[in-house]
């Protein structure tokens, strides 16, 4: 019976680096290798030593520093490559040479220009020579996915005879479907038995790399080759984090199979690789994507708040993420909104909550994501709200081309009646203030104007604060406006100041103080 512990062979530093744009320098590779060791990876393919002096140097330094993971270097079935691989891994306490040659008809005929017999001879010689550097030798039938299984048996038999200890079956061009890969491995396992460990290396050209890898476990594969974030040549390799978490999450299917991976290190490793390579996983990438543990819709958020497992099959903390997240947006509901308010330290009564929720939904329609600071600003607006004696209904602005006449039109509701008017001004803002003055029958003097963005991004909320003296009354009053549109926020702020003024004036009138000019 094969072992129950699946060997996780990480090739981020070799196949992963073959992703266009993912080249890493030696220091960066060392940093990643040390993190892979912390992650508990069994074998680290640290590079292709013969590719360049830089690659050789990086593998050599990794081999000198990593103690617990096996360090491997890739080599063609060519003496020069194998020698470089052997020398590069020499300092490692645990080492492996990985040599390969293609076995598919198309590769043998057009690329290698070798006959099948020559390929068998080359493969055997390569493994024999590699054996002079270390005991642990992996051999790969490149393009195994399109190779004849009968021919692969001949090749594998020969390399086992030469001392290969792991036999890798790569679906180099990501051509196979899961049931086909499983059938190939089943047949090869029947032939190889326990003479060597069977490994798979699946590419993602059809988006099946992980599914194909997992399908081979039941057939006897005991090593999976994979990369962090699924990096790799073209569409990439099988993603380590997906393989490991699938095995762990579906123990009902995979038990007693396990891995040695310390899953708490999955997220930190993913972040390190993304920051070094500059290649961010797509947001909806399983396990490590930005949205993998984020919930945006009200029904899901409500479910997760009541019982996390309603919408989560993995606990974010298990993979080293601080927590899942409820993203506040237009699909969020009252439960999530109330929960976020509580986190931010607000306790609103039902009426306040409902009113703040209406503001939140209006804002969410205009913004992609509503951030905590947006919510704080909304609540502040709600809490400090003064009676809307005058209410802005519409605002329309002319464009402000050089030489044009800036003008603004507004509709304002007062005591149930809507009035529309327009005014010109020295600038758009001046036109806005003038038309409000005219419609409301006041004369305001702007003493101060401030605008700032509540959060970042082009759709950030603008917070406008104005200080206005109406009808020559002192002291001036303040008004606040909040909107994704700065001019709307400006008009709201000005009308807010006017409402403040009217409220104060009404209070004074009721106390008989107005005529004293206080
Ligand atoms: C599926 C994979 O991911 S394979 C790994 C891919 N990684 C790399 O290619 C590593 C980076 N590569 C390199 O730096 C270079 O290609 C080198 C140093 C390896 C070789 O460079 P060059 O000697 O200039 O050869 P070049 O890359 O142009 O061509 C490859 C040659 O190797 C031969 N070859 C390819 N694979 C193998 C193999 N597994 N065993 C023996 N020969 C092979 C090709 O047939 C070709 O031979 P030819 O020159 O007689 O036609
Ligand atoms: C070198 C081999 C294992 C490879 O990367 C592939 O075939 O995809
Ligand atoms: Mg590959």
TrEMBL record:
Pfam families: HCS_D2, HMGL-like, LeuA_dimer. Mn(2+) binds at residues 15, 201, 203, 237. Signal peptide: none annotated. Pathway: Amino-acid biosynthesis; L-leucine biosynthesis; L-leucine from 3-methyl-2-oxobutanoate: step 1/4. Residues 6-267 form the Pyruvate carboxyltransferase domain. Its EC number is 2.3.3.13. GO terms for molecular function: 2-isopropylmalate synthase activity. InterPro entries: 2-IPM_HCS-like, 2-isopropylmalate_synth_dimer, AIPM/Hcit_synth_CS, Aldolase_TIM, LeuA/HCS_post-cat, LeuA_allosteric_dom_sf, LeuA_bact_synth, PYR_CT. Its cofactor is Mn(2+). The keyword Ion transport does not apply. It catalyses: 3-methyl-2-oxobutanoate + acetyl-CoA + H2O = (2S)-2-isopropylmalate + CoA + H(+). Homodimer. Belongs to the alpha-IPM synthase/homocitrate synthase family. LeuA type 1 subfamily. Catalyzes the condensation of the acetyl group of acetyl-CoA with 3-methyl-2-oxobutanoate (2-ketoisovalerate) to form 3-carboxy-3-hydroxy-4-methylpentanoate (2-isopropylmalate). HAMAP family: LeuA_type1 (MF_01025). PANTHER family: 2-ISOPROPYLMALATE SYNTHASE 1, CHLOROPLASTIC-RELATED, HOMOCITRATE SYNTHASE-RELATED. This is 2-isopropylmalate synthase. It comes from Sulfurospirillum tamanense.
